[in-house]
Amino acid sequence: MIRISRLLSQDQMTMKLQKFPLKNSGFDSTVSLALQLKAMVKGTTDESNHLDQTVPVQPVVPAQDPPVENEKLDFKTKVAPPSLDEHMANILEPVLKPLDVDPDVIETVTRKRNVERNNLPEFDKFSVQLTLRYSMQRQLLIAVVHKVMNVPMGNQSDLPDPYVKLLLLPDQMKMSKRKTSVVKNSVNPVYDETFEYTLLPSEINNRTLVVSVCSRSSSTIFGRCLTLGKGAIELAKLDLSKAVTDWFELENIDCDEGGND
User: Fold this and answer.
1) CA-CA distance, 67 to 88, in Å (whole number)?
2) Is 234 helix (H, G, I), strand (E, B) or coil?
3) Cα(144)–Cα(249) distance, integer angstroms
4) Residue 199 C-alpha from the chain's centroid
5) At what angle do helices 103-117 and 84-96 cross, to 10 degrees?
6) Cα–Cα distance between 23 and 245 in angstroms, integer?
7) 8 Å CB contact between 214 and 228
8) 44-76 tens-digit pLDDT
């Protein structure tokens, strides 16, 4: 092994022809070598002494995009993404336009698509969304009234003030009645209110939950209550061992209950 430091200490960094012993070879084996250390500069072929030459190093300047004239950036301006209705209309319009389809049909198809996407009832149906579950441990029937869609106006000129009533048949007693709060001036009220009934497991299959949507009439002094819709849910047809959330269609009714409820 010949160290570079040894070459650097030689005259003109040159080592004359010498014999060097070889390890792990035959007896008295040698190799004859003459060595010279040179510094090469890229792009030159001159073999003279290059140690005195200095190669300037140019700084590397990163490439820059050409300046854009009159460019103004407003980082506060944000473009809102298109709504679902706009997105669906953009998809359907190029397909239906060559067929000369009425724009109202495009809007109807878009609305129906939104109804399906959000697990809503058909948009022209009067329906209530409930969650029903029976707790075997607590022996309770739990009913959650979420919302009502498309409450009819009845014979009123103003928007209704709807609320939901629950009645667990065959018990007609007042203690089995439950009632949500009143939502003013709405045809799509949201409640998210929870009610409980104490029931034995053997009683579940014999019970029917009657759901009514009512509104207080402002046309009379006594504020009589109008029943706008009603539906019956047979609990025996549901698997209440787990929570069941669904929309239940209501039958339109326009009658005066004749009282303050």
Assistant:
1) 40
2) strand
3) 16
4) 39
5) 130
6) 88
7) yes
8) 555 545 444 544 545 555 556 555 555 444 444
**Contact predicate 183/151, CB 8 Å:** no
| Distance (Å) of CA 34 to CA 5, 19, 20, 28 | 16, 9, 11, 20
CA 227, CA 205: separation in Å to the nearest integer?
27
Residues contacting 139, CB < 8 A, separation 6+ = 198, 199, 200, 201
Measured CA to CA, the distance from residue 49 to residue 41 in angstroms comes to 11
Rg of the chain (C-alpha set): 45
Buried b (16+ CB within 10 A) or exposed e, 83-116: eeeeebbeebeeebeeeeeeeeebeeebeeeebe
pLDDT, one tens digit per residue, over 144-181 is 999 999 998 766 678 899 999 999 998 867 778 999 99
- Whether residue 143 contacts residue 194, with contact meaning beta carbons closer than 8 Å, is answered with yes
By the 8 A CB rule, do 106 and 92 touch? yes
Q: What is the DSSP string of 184-213?
A: SS-SS-EEEEEEEEE--GGGGGG-EEEEEE
Phi–psi pair at 236, nearest 5 degrees: -65, -20
Round the average pLDDT of the chain to a whole number and report it.
75
Helix ranges restricted to H, the chain: 4-8, 84-96, 103-117
